[in-house]
């Protein structure tokens, strides 16, 4: 048994097989190499590995689905055998890297097959040949072929996980997230909270753990590899106790979130997309306090169309059946990067071109989203929320663009509602001008993740700074109180949708400060409801 220690980003216990996350093959670049012999050897080694994987797939298919299906892998092996001459020639003649030589060979072979009009079978094999080329390229980069399709739920291990990677995972097959890098404030931690599974970061676990049995302890931040029988027994018991606690909390479903003295709090859920709605309903959220709409963009290969967005927003509005659904407009940039936006690399991305700044610069992107939001508003109780606000003019400008969108919908007789507008309070500037902002909007939602980052000048992604990071810093708590007071002076309701909103040690403090709404990962709702119901 080996034990590796890291930091716990979300609590819980998970027991299962460890699986290393396979990184998707990256874009292949053409690079000059001096040692062409070594480069060709690198190709040959990867080819050998790819051949073994293909044979394994062949045998598995033979056992599970029969000979006819298994044959395709014989064709893959044949394609791979034919790669050698072309790959060697490209590497030696052009002094280029093996990845480029393999990708070019794959593309050329695919083009040749596509032209075989007299042989429809081979013509249909262009995807297979590209699949083979991708496999070899992945193997050259340390991957092992078959992506992240797991047959059983696993403890997922990775160097780090970008939001664009987590969105592609089959979440029903993930029992826990363990990353070698990352921080407790990262989006992986947020996702773990939504899924109610343990997550660890900064764990120095070696790649060799892949495939072994493991236990993730999200209370202490440790992972056990090949656990001894007594440890396994202890954790099995702990997992059962956790499940029992969960069963007790379920009794709070359907109950109001109100203190004994009668102060009611809106307890809402944070979501990244339609896929999270079942967690919302399961945990009895009274509404959605933050729909991170950028996840729709992260899931797409290109800008999602108005129609695609409309369908997603409409589904959420309909599923929530008249309950409030706060949808945040696109908050891209900084830690949430998307290739097709072609954003320039910045020295200081957290202080850079992001969120509302992108929307007010590229108005067409913003208008497409707003049209989708207003169209969906006819199907439920949608509220629109603007992220990363620092100035009054940004809200005024965004509202004037909304008016243009509404005028256009009116002209075309498209039904919509005049929805409430809110802003996120995520910057010290927004806190300091909260009185002015409150005159323009219907609600505030405090984004404590970014508000803490900007108030303390601590990059939320930088793991080296964690000891300086204090989520309970008096400056942050004071900023929250100032925001609540300013909102209430102008009849503007105030909520918290950052991770701090789910912190059970602060629930009482927030209620006493006068908070109206707390929005959090669905798994935190029932525990926080319990605290509020127990309060005087
Ligand atoms: C926040 O900053 O607190 C927030 C809710 O937004 P995100 O975590 O998506 O940046
Ligand atoms: Mg934020």
Describe the structure.
It is a single chain. This protein is of the alpha/beta class. It contains 21 helices and 16 strands. An 8-stranded mixed beta sheet has the order 1-8-7-3-4-5-6-2. α15 (392-411) links the parallel β12 and β13. The radius of gyration is 26 Å and the shape is globular. Bound molecules: phosphoenolpyruvate (PEP) and magnesium ion (MG). The site of phosphoenolpyruvate has 10 residues, from β10 and α18.
Topology:
Blueprint: E1 2-5, E2 7-10, E3 13-20, H1 36-65, H2 67-81, H3 83-94, H4 98-114, H5 120-123, H6 126-140, E4 154-158, H7 163-166, E5 174-179, H8 187-195, E6 199-201, E7 213-217, E8 222-225, H9 229-250, E9 266-271, H10 277-282, E10 288-292, H11 294-298, H12 306-319, E11 324-328, H13 356-361, H14 363-377, E12 381-386, H15 392-411, E13 421-425, H16 428-432, H17 434-438, E14 443-446, H18 448-456, H19 474-489, E15 493-496, H20 507-513, E16 517-520, H21 522-534
Parallel strand pairs: 3-4, 4-5, 5-6, 9-10, 9-16, 10-11, 11-12, 12-13, 13-14, 14-15, 15-16
Antiparallel strand pairs: 1-8, 2-6, 3-7, 7-8
Helix pairs in contact: 1-2, 1-3, 1-6, 2-6, 3-4, 4-6, 12-14, 14-15
The structure holds phosphoenolpyruvate and magnesium ion.
């Amino acid at each position: 048994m080996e034990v590796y220690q890291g930091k716990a980003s979300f609590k819980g216990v998970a027991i299962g097989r460890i699986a290393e996350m396979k990184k998707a093959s990256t874009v292949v670049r053409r690079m000059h190499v001096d040692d062409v012999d070594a480069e060709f050897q690198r190709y040959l080694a990867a080819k050998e590995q790819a051949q073994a994987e293909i044979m394994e797939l062949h045998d598995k298919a033979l056992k599970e689905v029969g000979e006819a299906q298994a044959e395709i892998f014989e064709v893959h092996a044949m394609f791979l055998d034919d790669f050698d001459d072309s790959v060697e020639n490209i590497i030696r003649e052009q002094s280029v890297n093996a990845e480029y030589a393999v990708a070019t060979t794959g593309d050329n072979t695919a083009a040749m097959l596509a032209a075989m009009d007299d042989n429809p079978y081979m013509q249909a094999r262009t995807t297979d040949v590209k699949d083979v080329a991708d496999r070899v390229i992945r193997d050259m980069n340390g991957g092992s072929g078959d992506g992240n399709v797991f047959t059983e739920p696993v403890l997922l291990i990775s160097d780090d996980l970008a939001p664009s990677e987590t969105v592609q995972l089959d979440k029903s097959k993930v029992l826990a997230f363990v990353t070698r890098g990352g921080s407790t404030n990262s989006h992986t931690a947020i996702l773990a909270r939504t899924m109610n599974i343990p997550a660890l970061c900064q764990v120095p676990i070696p790649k060799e753990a892949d495939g072994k049995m493991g236990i993730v302890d999200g209370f202490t931040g440790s992972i056990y590899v090949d656990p001894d029988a007594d440890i396994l027994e202890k954790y099995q018991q702990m997992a059962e106790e956790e499940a029992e606690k969960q069963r007790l909390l379920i009794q709070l479903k359907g109950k109001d979130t109100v203190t004994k003295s009668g102060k009611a709090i809106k307890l809402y859920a944070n979501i990244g997309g339609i896929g999270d709605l079942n967690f919302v309903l399961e945990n009895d959220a009274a509404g959605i306090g933050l729909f991170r709409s950028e996840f729709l963009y992260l899931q797409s290969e290109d800008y999602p169309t108005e129609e695609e967005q409309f369908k997603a927003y409409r589904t959420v509005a309909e599923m929530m059946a008249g309950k409030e659904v706060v949808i945040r407009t696109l908050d891209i940039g900084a830690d949430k990067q998307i290739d097709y936006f072609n954003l320039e690399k910045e020295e200081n991305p957290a202080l850079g071109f992001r969120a509302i700044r992108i929307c007010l610069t590229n108005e067409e992107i913003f208008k497409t989203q707003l049209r989708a939001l207003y169209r969906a508003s006819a199907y439920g109780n949608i509220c629109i929320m603007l992220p990363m606000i620092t100035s009054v003019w940004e809200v005024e400008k965004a509202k004037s663009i909304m008016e243009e969108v509404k005028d256009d919908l009116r002209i075309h007789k498209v039904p919509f509602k005049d929805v409430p507008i809110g802003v996120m309070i995520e910057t010290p500037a927004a806190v300091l001008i909260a009185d002015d902002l409150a005159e323009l909007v219907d609600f505030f939602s405090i984004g404590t993740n970014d508000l803490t980052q900007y108030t303390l000048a601590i990059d939320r992604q930088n793991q080296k700074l964690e000891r300086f990071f204090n989520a309970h810093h008096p400056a942050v708590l004071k900023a929250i109180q100032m925001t609540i007071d300013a909102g209430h002076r102008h009849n503007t309701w105030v909520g918290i949708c950052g991770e701090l909103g789910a912190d059970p040690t602060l629930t009482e403090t927030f209620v006493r400060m006068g908070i109206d709404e707390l929005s959090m990962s669905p798994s935190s709702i029932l525990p926080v409801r319990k605290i509020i119901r127990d309060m005087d």
